[in-house]
Structures are given as C-alpha cells and as structure tokens.
Design goal:
This protein is an alpha+beta fold. The chain is built from three helices and seven strands. Strands 1, 2, 3, 4, 5, 6 and 7 form a seven-stranded mixed sheet that branches. A hairpin with a 2-residue loop joins strand 4 and strand 5. The model has no long low-confidence stretch (mean pLDDT 95).
C-alpha cells in the first residue's frame, strides 16, 4: 500500500482587505440569501457569481416539500449564469449562509454544488475562485477543483 497526500492552499482575510469586486460579490451573496425560500430548513443560502465580462448573477436556495426537488443557491446561480451568458466564463463565486438569523462561519458547498463548480471550470477552461463567506471575513480557494480533488468529470465518460 502506498500512502498519498492531497493538499490545497487557501487564503483568509477580513472583508475590507479584498478587492472591491469581491467585496461587492460578498454583498450580492448576502442580499441573495435574504431572498431564500427555506420554509423547512430555515437555512438561507445566497450565492453570487462574477463573470469575466464583469456581470454579477446572484441566487438563493429554493426548497420544496419534496426535498429532492429543491436546489442549492450555488447551482441556481451557476445554471442561470450559464443559461444567460453561455459564452462568458465564471471567474468567482461567493457563498454565504444564515441559520437562526446569523451568518454561518465558514460555510462550505455540498458535494453536488462542488461537482457543478468543477464542470463550470471545465466548461470555460479557466479556474473559478470560491469565496466561503463569514460575518467579517472570507476564505478564498483559488479554483473549484481544489474542493473536489479526486473527481468524476467528462474525461471519465
């Protein structure tokens, strides 16, 4: 048996230290979370996507009484960006969540959303920066593929 190790590099900084576009991305994600339809979990998630052309798209999670029929904020935002701007690369996504009226510190996307982020990167042939947002700071992962290092993608088909 051979043991292997996977490592990722990430950065953290207070909101005030990020470049203005990323601060705006954070604000868009927070605003989107306030519009979440989460009557069952009361877990409100917002995601904001920055595109290579400077446009921003934001979305919130949308629950459904038939639980598998709902959709995470990240996927709503990424799918909308892909449908509205199919030829424009996604450069960054910011994710924020609220539970009991407070921001969840260090929220991380689910596996399904990680897979969609990976596909978004592959589609554009460029990395997607992932910002995991807290109340006063953000954690940056430089490419979505770092969130899913041993992945299933189109190469496997």
């Amino acid at each position: 048996m051979i043991e292997h190790e996977l490592k990722i590099t990430f950065c953290t900084a207070p909101l005030s230290e990020w470049e203005k576009p990323y601060q705006l991305l954070y604000e868009e994600a927070v605003a989107a979370a306030s519009k979440a339809y989460a009557p069952y979990s009361h877990f409100q998630v917002g995601a904001a996507v920055l595109l290579a052309n400077g446009e921003m798209v934001s979305a919130s999670n949308q629950e459904n009484a038939a639980y598998p029929s709902g959709l995470c904020a990240e996927r709503v935002a990424l799918f909308y960006a892909g449908a509205k701007y199919p030829e424009v690369a996604v450069t960054a996504i910011a994710i924020v969540a609220f539970s009991n009226g407070k921001i969840v510190e260090g929220i991380s996307p689910c596996g399904g959303c990680r897979q969609v982020m990976l596909e978004t990167e592959k589609r554009a042939g460029a990395p997607v920066k992932v910002f995991l947002c807290g109340s006063t700071s953000m954690l940056l992962i430089n490419c979505a593929s770092d969130l899913l290092p041993i992945c299933f993608d189109g190469c496997d088909l």
